[in-house]
Design goal:
Elements (H helix, E strand, L loop, with lengths): L13 E5 L6 E5 L7 E3 H14 L6 H48 L5 H10 L1
Antiparallel strand pairs: 1-2, 2-3
Length: 123
């Protein structure tokens, strides 16, 4: 909110803080000598009223286009995270296969207890 709210007197952005005395949140102007100080709950109410007045009146076709564009933008922004997740899952599967192979070798007595401890620490 603090990047949306400007001081009534000087036009500078307000900063938020919590008062010790009453444990209430406020917005205050950071300009020296300016005495603009507002309770956060009052400011938030006014902001929600302003937001409620902002409406985008479009027909159904335009609404579908906007929705499709929002989904495409979201997918584009999260594509890298999806790739990282896929890469980590692949690494996890490889580690699980190695552990399973080591357990089989241990069961078949191809490796002994001392060697299996050293190998598991290196994974």
């Amino acid at each position: 909110m603090k990047r949306f709210i400007k001081c009534d007197e000087c036009g500078a952005f307000l900063r938020a803080y919590k008062a010790w005395k009453n444990q209430q949140y406020y917005y205050k102007c950071n300009t020296r000598g300016c005495s603009c100080n507002r309770r956060a709950d009052e400011v938030h109410k006014k902001f929600f009223v302003l937001l409620g007045q902002q409406q985008l009146n479009v027909n159904e076709d335009v609404a579908k286009l906007i929705s499709a564009q929002m989904i495409a933008t979201y997918n584009q922004l999260t594509k890298e995270k999806q790739r990282d997740s896929e890469r980590l899952n692949k690494q996890l599967q490889e580690c699980e296969k190695k552990i399973e192979r080591l357990e089989e070798r241990y069961i078949n007595e191809e490796i002994d207890r001392d060697l299996s401890g050293v190998i598991s620490k290196s994974l």
